[in-house]
Amino acid sequence: MDERMLQKSGSAGSAVYQHLKQQIVSLDLPPGTTLSEKEMSLTFQVSRTPVRESFVRLAQEGLVLVLPQRGTRVSLIDSDMVEEARFMREQLEKAVIRLACESFPADRLADLESNLTEQQHSIQQRDGKRMFELDEDFHRILFEGCRKRGTWNTIQQMNAHLNRTRILWLWTDPHWEHLYEQHRQMFLAVKQQQADLAEQIMKEHMSLNIANLPVLKERYPEYFK
Amino acid sequence: MDERMLQKSGSAGSAVYQHLKQQIVSLDLPPGTTLSEKEMSLTFQVSRTPVRESFVRLAQEGLVLVLPQRGTRVSLIDSDMVEEARFMREQLEKAVIRLACESFPADRLADLESNLTEQQHSIQQRDGKRMFELDEDFHRILFEGCRKRGTWNTIQQMNAHLNRTRILWLWTDPHWEHLYEQHRQMFLAVKQQQADLAEQIMKEHMSLNIANLPVLKERYPEYFK
DNA sequence: CCTACCATACTACCATACAAGTATGGTAGT
DNA sequence: ACTACCATACTTGTATGGTAGTATGGTAGG
User: Fold this and answer.
1) Is A115 on the interface with B (CB under 8 A)?
2) Distance between the alpha carbon (CA) of B47 and the C1' atom of C27, Å
3) In chain A, how many domains are there?
4) Smallest Cβ distance to A150: which of B81, B91, B95?
5) Same domain, B25 and B98
6) Contact A80/B150, CB-based, under 8 Å?
7) Which domain holds residue A32?
8) pLDDT along chain B (225 residues), means of 10
9) Chain B residues touching A21 at Cβ < 8 A
10) pLDDT tens digit sequence for A158-187
11) What's the per-residue H, E or C state across A182-216?
12) CATH code of the domain containing A46
């Protein structure tokens, strides 16, 4: 484990955890991959203890599945969990954007606007990875502006399943322009305090994530439960 | 660690985890209590390793706070987290009970009814602890009947903070009759598929949890952040 | 050729020893 | 009396050896 990385994360266990989580959510470690404490301890150059600690945390979030005395593997994407995550996000994001339409800090509104500018940039440069991050940031800023940061963090738990399907979908059909347009309209609705409009767009925005799930299950059957 | 308990939970680590979690949420271990791996390993008669594993899991849920090289203590109740948990539950429970009004399995509806009967029983017997469990069960059945079990589980994370305040409140003012009446009305609304009515009662039901927070902070200041 | 068995090489789980950071109380020096 | 220092007894973090359960491949027996 690199020293800089350790300092950033505070402990070896946290560093391994963050590294693995990033790789799992980005599908760098595809669903079904077997992990094993020993193997990871060798690649990260730490003992099995911090690796085991990271496995415990990942299992708690449903990102890996630990089978006692048999092995540990990256959890398959659960279609039901994907739909539930979408459901949760729809309800909470609709409620939050209504709050945002009532009152939203000016500086956070500015953050949204600069985020949109960066989105345009990333689309022009065909930088899908950056665009995905900006998408996440856009919604996170909405939550934070409404003082609902903890809610956003809680959503992230189940979001792991949803996000992995979103990445799969974007592999097959990068439809960034459509997403950007929705983001822009939501920004304007918040700025002009049009709650009903904002909620409606958000509802459609969230519905996008689920429509193509059957297609993905057919194209990547080995990734799904 | 008792052998029966170990068999029930699968591993020593899980057993310690479940035990501590139950004690924390029930305020048997009050907020601020220092824990220490060594101490717990002695009381549970296991080594530090499974105890440490349980600490990691509890920290992941925000139930304990681990300060490296200094100690571990039961996390104080965070007022902001309590309000956010209430917010999350309100949005999700409103959406779920609307779904329930559209369609709800007959056997689960029967479960709700028998749950209500048990609630009456527990109120007569002044069994607050049992009543609290039944309250939780009532809402869990609603989620499960709508195939939103994962959503319920996710809520539980943040619910730890909310539930601890609810217990404090019920220590000072056991108002079980009022809660029972709301539960009964929600049951009838679901049965008669009156979505708007059900949502309205649920909204009031969720609002109860937050009103007396300032009073509790004044009465138990050492429990809050 | 097929089947039952067993040695072997994995796995996660647990106990233990050591390392490193921190709080605390006593003591020497001013 | 007060302050600076340090030994000591804590704490969590990490490394490692051993245990028990499981999958697998080869082998002996039918």
Assistant:
1) no
2) 37
3) 2
4) B81
5) no
6) yes
7) 3-74
8) 61 95 94 96 96 97 95 95 94 98 96 96 90 94 96 88 90 87 97 97 91 90 93
9) none
10) 888 899 999 998 888 878 899 999 999 999
11) HHHHHHHHHHCCCHHHHHHHHHHHHHHHHHCHHHH
12) 1.10.10.10
